[in-house]
């Protein structure tokens, strides 16, 4: 069976089980939401309204007393307005009540409040007739009793509502517990079923991919020499057969690559060496004969051949680095001495351009395990770039710093700087930040490749018009290697 069919069947089974679990969960959650919604939309607003009504009744009693004692029409009008509001709130409260106990107590509150309003109207009639004492007796007797009955009825409504709320909360908690238990059980069952269904497929895939991964690691390390044993007809088996073909092809490419490097080095370098030797001879003859025109032509031939030799070396080195075929003679090397020799090599150029070059060192041990020639090329390339892009009268500073586990070489100049949009690709091959085509655009790419071949890193920071700083970090040589050389 094809791998796609196996994965589809297992996935379909898992999806069906999970869909069933989701449907069950949604149904139980719906019931839980309904219970909580009932609490939020009925019980809680009802309790709030009941508390407000009790406060309103207390206020009406106090307002009634002031209106009766002071016989102020404004107080009387205020009482009437608030009484009408309480009546509306009582009617609204009825829409929140569902339990029989709540409705019975609510009906008592409505009846008691209607009685209370009737007694207040009687008080006003007596006051209008000048019978103030009779009105006070009504206020302190039947009216006060009616108000107390209203408060008692509202208290009964609150007690019934709170009892209903407690029952709903208990039901919601029980439903929540059952929901979690059901969902957990369903999820556990679906996971066990999914694991059981996919165990065999996963084991087979992991075994095949593990063999393929090990073979790929060996191939990347250059230690793979055999072929991968392949069984079956699924996609992983086809991938294994393709891996065997790729490994064979890579071995052939490695052989051709080594032959290409061997031939191209001689085919390009030897003719250029002959050209340079001939140009130097012509230059000496022209200078001896006093033929300045011929001397200039010979000088141009020599410098052009030198520049071409440098570009060819860069191209070959970059190609070797890309192919991991760069020969490195690793041995303990003093990076401070390498940097000093590089500065001495470029001293004539710095003096010609009147650029001050300084080298500073912080630390005591500057030994790395690397190829001295390659490290010298890194320093020369970076210093050469700094001198090339720094105007006369500027400065180039090289600073070597010893850190706990590595050395850091920073080369900073006061040159033209690098545009910000060029910094992300400054180390890419065949690209130049300032558009100059005097070289192949491989200098920094070679620097990056050589530094990384030594297990290090290279970075850059620059500000246009103010200068550039390249920072190279290389791991320090192990103490055992240094001791072995010293011995």
Largest sheet: 5 strands, mixed
Low-pLDDT sequence parts:
none
Alpha-beta classification: alpha+beta
> What do we call the CATH topology of the largest domain?
Four Helix Bundle (Hemerythrin (Met), subunit A)
Counted beta strands? 7
Strand content: 5-15%
Radius of gyration of CA atoms, rounded to a whole number:
48 Å
* CATH first level of the largest domain: Mainly Alpha
Report mean pLDDT, rounded to a whole number. 78
CATH superfamily of the largest domain: Aspartate receptor, ligand-binding domain
Q: Which strand order does the major sheet show?
A: 2-4-5-7-6
Shape descriptor: elongated
For the record, give the distance between the C-alpha atoms at the N and C termini, rounded to a whole number.
65 Å
Can you tell me the number of structural domains? 3
Order of helices and strands: HHHHHHEHHEEHEEHEEH
Give the proportion of residues in helices. Answer: over 70%
Number of helices: 11
CATH architecture of the largest domain: Up-down Bundle
């Amino acid at each position: 069976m094809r791998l796609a069919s196996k994965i589809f069947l297992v996935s379909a089974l898992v999806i069906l089980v999970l869909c069933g679990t989701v449907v069950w969960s949604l149904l139980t959650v719906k019931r839980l939401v309904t219970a909580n919604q009932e609490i939020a939309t009925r019980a809680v607003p009802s309790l709030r309204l009941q508390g407000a009504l009790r406060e309103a009744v207390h206020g009406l009693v106090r307002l009634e007393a002031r209106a009766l004692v002071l016989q102020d029409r404004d107080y009387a009008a205020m009482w009437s307005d608030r009484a009408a509001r309480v009546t509306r709130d009582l009617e609204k409260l009825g829409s929140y009540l569902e339990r029989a106990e709540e409705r019975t107590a609510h009906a008592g509150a409505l009846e008691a409040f209607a009685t209370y309003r009737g007694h207040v109207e009687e008080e006003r009639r007596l006051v209008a007739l000048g019978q103030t004492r009779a009105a006070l007796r009504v206020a302190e007797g039947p009216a006060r009793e009616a108000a107390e009955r209203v408060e008692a009825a509202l208290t009964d409504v609150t007690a019934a509502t709170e009892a209903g709320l407690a029952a709903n909360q208990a039901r919601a908690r029980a439903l929540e517990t059952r929901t979690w238990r059901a969902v957990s059980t369903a999820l556990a069952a679906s996971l066990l079923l999914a694991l059981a269904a996919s165990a065999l497929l996963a084991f087979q895939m992991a075994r095949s991919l593990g063999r393929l991964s090990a073979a790929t690691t060996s191939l990347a390390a250059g230690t793979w020499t055999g072929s991968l044993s392949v069984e079956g007809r699924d996609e992983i088996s086809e991938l294994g057969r393709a891996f065997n073909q790729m490994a064979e092809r890579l071995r052939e490419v490695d052989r051709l690559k080594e032959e290409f490097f061997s031939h191209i080095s001689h085919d390009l370098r030897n003719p250029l060496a002959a050209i340079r030797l001939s140009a130097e001879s012509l230059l000496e003859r022209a200078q001896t004969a006093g033929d300045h025109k011929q001397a200039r032509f010979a000088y141009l031939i020599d410098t052009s051949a030198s520049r071409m030799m440098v570009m060819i070396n860069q191209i070959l080195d970059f190609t070797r680095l890309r192919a991991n075929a760069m020969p490195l003679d690793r041995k303990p090397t003093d990076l401070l001495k390498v940097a000093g020799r590089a500065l001495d090599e470029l001293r004539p150029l710095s003096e010609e351009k009147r650029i001050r070059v300084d080298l500073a060192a912080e630390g005591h041990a500057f030994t790395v395990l690397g190829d001295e020639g390659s490290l010298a090329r890194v320093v020369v390339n970076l210093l050469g770039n700094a001198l090339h892009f720094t105007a006369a009268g500027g400065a180039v500073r090289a600073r070597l710093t010893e850190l706990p586990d590595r050395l850091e070489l920073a080369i900073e100049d006061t040159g033209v700087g690098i545009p910000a949009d060029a910094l992300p690709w400054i180390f890419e091959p065949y690209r130049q930040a300032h558009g100059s085509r005097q070289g192949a655009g491989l200098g920094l790419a070679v620097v990056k490749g050589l530094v990384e071949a030594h297990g290090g890193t290279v970075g850059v920071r620059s500000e246009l018009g103010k200068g550039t700083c390249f920072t190279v970090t290389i791991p320090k040589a192990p103490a055992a290697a240094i001791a072995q050389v010293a011995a």
